[in-house]
């Protein structure tokens, strides 16, 4: 994959003391296809899921390494889909936990660019700056790798309730957040040089 250099706005984030947060949403569902697994011969495993319609949504921020701090991962989860208000609450959560102003890099999801979200960001210019990824280019967002790992881990999960599914998704993202080498690899896979990140 060709190496990608930081765009001017990302270099500006470094000079201004902002952390770069690659943000994306993903979903966990009982409708996910099961994966191959090991079982004794003539004893295929059976997965019993209570309700195929239940879903949990996750919004995730992968924070680029800066200074001596490695890449970090933060996530929030809810039943159903995210509203603009949920996005705003997530931005507040990411800002509070990172402890620095954020340059948010994300896609063109409607809730990302709704009037409510943009009004909130406009009222907090010292805390947030928004940058939009090109359309149909998930490979440019290193956070997509995080979603893939969690989806693979939950593929054969058999939660008994939406609350349990939500807990399993949250726990999977928390575990991944401790794997700094894997998080770093997602940046390299997206063609970003870690030495150029703040």
Biggest sheet overview: 5 strands, mixed
The CATH superfamily label reads: Ribonuclease H-like superfamily/Ribonuclease H
CATH class: Alpha Beta
- The low-confidence runs, each spanning 5 or more residues with pLDDT under 50, are 1-6
**Structural class of the helices, strands and pairings?**
alpha/beta
Q: How many domains is the backbone divided into?
A: 1
How many H/I helices?
A: 6
In which range does the helix fraction lie? 25-40%
Which range does the strand content fall in? 15-25%
Order of helices and strands: HEEEHEHEHHH
* Mean pLDDT figure: 84
Structural shape: globular
* CATH architectural grouping: 2-Layer Sandwich
């Amino acid at each position: 994959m060709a190496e990608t250099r930081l765009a001017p706005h990302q270099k500006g984030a470094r000079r201004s003391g902002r952390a770069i947060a690659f943000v994306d949403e993903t979903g966990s569902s009982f409708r996910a296809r099961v994966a191959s697994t090991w079982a004794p011969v003539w004893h295929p495993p059976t997965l019993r899921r209570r309700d195929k319609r239940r879903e949990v949504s996750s919004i995730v921020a992968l924070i680029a390494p800066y200074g001596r701090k490695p890449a970090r991962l933060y996530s929030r989860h809810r039943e159903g889909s995210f509203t603009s208000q949920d996005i705003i609450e997530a931005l507040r959560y990411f800002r509070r936990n990172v402890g620095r102003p954020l340059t948010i890099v994300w896609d063109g999801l409607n809730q990302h660019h709704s009037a409510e979200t943009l009004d909130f960001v406009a009222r907090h210019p010292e805390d947030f700056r928004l940058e939009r990824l090109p359309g149909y280019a998930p490979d440019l967002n290193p956070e997509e790798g995080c979603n893939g790992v969690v989806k693979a881990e939950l593929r054969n999960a058999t939660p008994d309730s939406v609350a349990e599914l939500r807990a399993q998704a949250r726990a999977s993202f928390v575990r991944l957040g401790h794997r700094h080498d894997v998080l770093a690899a997602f940046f390299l896979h997206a063609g970003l040089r870690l030495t150029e990140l703040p």
